[in-house]
Write a structure and sequence with these properties.
Elements lengths: L3 E4 L5 H12 L3 E6 L9 E4 L5 H15 L4 E4 L14 H29 L2 E6 L2 H5 L5 H21 L4 E8 L5 H4 L3 H10 L8 H11 L11 E4 L8
Helix pairs in contact: 1-8, 2-3, 3-5
GO molecular function, one term: 3-oxoacyl-[acyl-carrier-protein] reductase (NADPH) activity
EC number: 1.1.1.100
Keywords: Oxidoreductase
Length: 234
């Protein structure tokens, strides 16, 4: 049966690949976006994840179109890289507000309907940077690491209601965000990846779709790396 799926930041990159994977699965898929609308065939909802009022409006639009959200993929994220001593407090807090607090806003709102239905899937999109740390990304790594503690706390709170909460941690995946990294840094990362290559957004999407499936019904509070082995041991 088709489920109501919401993917934040689902208009490009990994989010778009995830949205398309659920469409291929026969689900009813909505994606949030800010500036660039999603491709044809996806139900788009304009939403700034740092604005609680817009988050509430987005859920109402999705619920009116597809019914209560049964699968939430919190993928929206930004970077604003610089070294610690040059990083202003605003640079730090703005990245956390989008990546981490934004995920909290969506998960908290989605949990309402999931608890009523006694079933749900929440999947937070972290990063290998949140596991290993990355120079120049104190704010980004902190936001992605925070998702692990948040997800595991939610998993303990919501598990008895049939709701699973998990984290996917991609590595170096070919997206616009990866393209922003200096080529020297990307080459350095590729040299540390046991599989010796970039990841494809569709490989991340496959992991997300599995975590949302009935087959993964006994998996919660887990961190699933999709990084070619880059973060092994973390």
């Amino acid at each position: 049966m088709a489920r109501s799926v919401l993917v934040t930041g689902g208009n490009r990159g990994i989010g778009l690949a995830v949205a398309r994977a659920f469409v291929e699965n026969g689900d009813k898929v909505a994606v949030t976006h800010r500036d660039t609308p999603p491709p044809d065939g996806l139900f788009g909802v304009r939403c700034d994840v740092t604005d609680s009022g817009q988050v509430e409006r987005a859920f109402k639009e999705v619920e009116n179109a597809h019914g209560p959200v049964e699968v939430l993929v919190s993928n929206a994220g930004v970077t604003d890289d610089t070294l610690l001593l040059r990083m202003s407090e605003e640079k730090f807090t703005s990245v956390l507000d989008t990546n981490l607090t934004g995920a909290y806003r969506f998960a908290r709102r989605a949990a309402r309907g999931m608890l009523r239905a006694r079933w749900g899937r929440v999947i937070l999109m972290s990063s290998v940077a949140g596991m290993t740390g990355t120079a120049g990304q104190v704010n980004y790594a902190a936001s992605k690491s925070g998702m692990v503690g948040m997800a595991r706390s939610m998993a303990r709170e919501l598990g008895s209601w049939g709701v699973t909460v998990n984290v996917v941690a991609p590595g170096l995946v070919l997206t616009d965000m990866a393209e922003k990294l200096p080529e020297e840094r990307r080459e350095q990362m590729r040299g540390q990846i046991p599989l010796g290559r970039h990841g494809d957004p569709r490989e991340v999407a496959a992991a997300v779709r599995w975590l949302a499936s009935d087959e993964a019904g006994y998996v919660t509070g887990a961190v699933l790396p999709v990084d070619g082995g880059l973060g092994m041991g973390h």
